[in-house]
Design brief:
Number of helices: 6
Distance between the termini: 71 Å
Strand order of the largest sheet: 2-1-3
Structural class: alpha/beta
Radius of gyration: 22 Å
Oligomer: single chain
Strand content: 5-15%
């Protein structure tokens, strides 16, 4: 009898009712997954909406998943990832398929170089730590330097490891 009553309560409960709209939202990095979780918690069951948080594997893979996988309807991505993917021929998608919805914040760019490097142009041909391809810094670093016409030798280190590489002479910037 208790199981039967629980079944009736579960069927009648609006929280357990089927959502009218379910959206799969992917975060590009672990640090952004918390934002997707908070969006899900705040918007779930508002007017029949259900947001399903999904962990991505870096900005480029997340963009690819957004365009090609069923069930990925939205993604939290840096705004420069689409430009990088188009410039490098990584994606060919009609503009109407993707929409920029909202700016959630911004990221600062920090360029640390050896003391003898005095300008952006002096980075040409140098070893520059831009991070790995799954990090947003990789995309931003490439876009920034390539738009300035600066060819460089890529060092796949980011964050504290990149700073250490500059300090120890393994990278120039």
């Amino acid at each position: 009898l208790a199981a039967f009553l629980f079944g009736i309560v579960a069927i009648a409960s609006p929280v357990l009712a089927a959502p009218k709209t379910a959206i799969g939202m992917m975060a590009d990095t672990p640090s952004n997954f918390g934002v997707v979780l908070r969006l899900s918690a705040g918007l779930d069951h508002q007017g029949g909406l259900r947001i399903l948080p999904i962990a991505g594997k870096g900005p480029l893979q997340t963009l690819n998943d957004l365009v090609h996988l069923k069930g990925i309807d939205a993604a939290l991505l840096p705004s420069d990832v689409l430009a990088y993917a188009r410039i490098n021929g990584l994606i060919d998608v009609a503009p109407e398929k993707l929409s920029y919805l909202v700016k959630l914040g911004h990221h600062d760019i920090h360029l640390l170089a050896r003391k003898d490097i005095q300008s952006l142009q002096e980075l040409a041909g140098r070893r520059i730590a831009v991070g790995s391809p799954i990090e947003p810094s990789y995309i931003t670093g490439h876009l920034l330097l390539e738009s300035a016409g600066i060819a460089f030798e890529e060092v796949p280190l980011g964050g504290a490891a990149a700073v250490k590489a500059v300090a120890e002479g393994q990278a120039d910037a």
